[in-house]
Design brief:
alpha+beta; 6 strands
């Protein structure tokens, strides 16, 4: 008589398989996480670019039509535009962006900005609540092309990244310049100290703030340089 034996894994074989799977996962998870972060940063960069293109077109139309009082860069409005909400209203009321566009543009991983629109006498007004995923600087028409127009909200100019700030913590940051180029940068690009305090090299990599001289980087950000974000 023949006795059939069922094939199966021994305990040792199962442990070996589990160990192999765990090893593969240990390599795969960081790669997947990194890919997700890069995807999120690419999305944020596209959002900043979309806001820039609307702002650039508005300022260009103001120059072309000699209407810079109504159509201008953020810093050229003077006291009438001090907040991101003020600037967004200029973009919406002059039909360069829709309120629904703003909700997507201003939100990001870990931060949600709610845009509420109301219309009275054919004028649409938007209200921003929550937290914006990006910030906009008070760029003026005379600024150089490497002046920063917008940056992700986790970045404070010429300051090391903070792990607690959203979006992205200390994983990296995004900037888009007045010239239109947008870049994704790493945490070791965040401050001039990473460039041996060489202001020229730092500005070449990151950009400069409105009003800064070539080769001299501001330390942090003052209210005179950045639009107030919703809280």
């Amino acid at each position: 008589m023949r006795k059939d034996h069922l094939a199966g894994f021994t305990l040792i074989e199962m442990l070996v398989v589990i160990a192999i799977i765990a090893t593969i996962a240990a390599f795969a998870v960081p790669a997947i996480t990194s890919a997700m972060q890069k995807g999120q940063m690419t999305g944020a960069m596209n959002n900043e670019r979309q806001l820039f293109l609307a702002g650039y077109q508005m300022a260009l139309d103001g120059t072309t039509n000699n209407d810079s009082a109504n159509l201008a860069w953020p810093g050229d409005y003077g006291a009438s535009v001090n907040s991101l909400e003020d600037y967004c209203n200029k973009l919406v009321q002059n039909d360069y962006l829709k309120p629904g566009d703003l909700q997507k543009i201003l939100s990001g991983p870990g931060v949600g900005c709610t845009v509420t629109a109301s219309t009275a006498n054919n004028v649409t007004t938007v209200t921003l609540t929550g937290k914006s995923g990006l910030k906009v600087y008070k760029v003026v028409d005379g600024d150089a092309s490497n002046t920063i127009f917008a940056a992700s909200a986790n970045y404070t100019y010429n300051t090391a990244l903070d792990t607690t700030k959203s979006p992205f913590g200390d994983k990296g940051f995004i900037v888009v310049h007045k010239g239109g180029d947008a870049v994704s940068l790493r945490k070791n690009n965040a401050a001039a100290s990473f460039y041996n305090n060489d202001g020229a090299k730092f500005q070449a990599a990151v950009g400069k703030l409105t009003g800064d001289a070539d080769g001299t980087a501001s330390s942090g950000e003052s209210a005179s340089k950045v639009l107030t974000s919703p809280q």
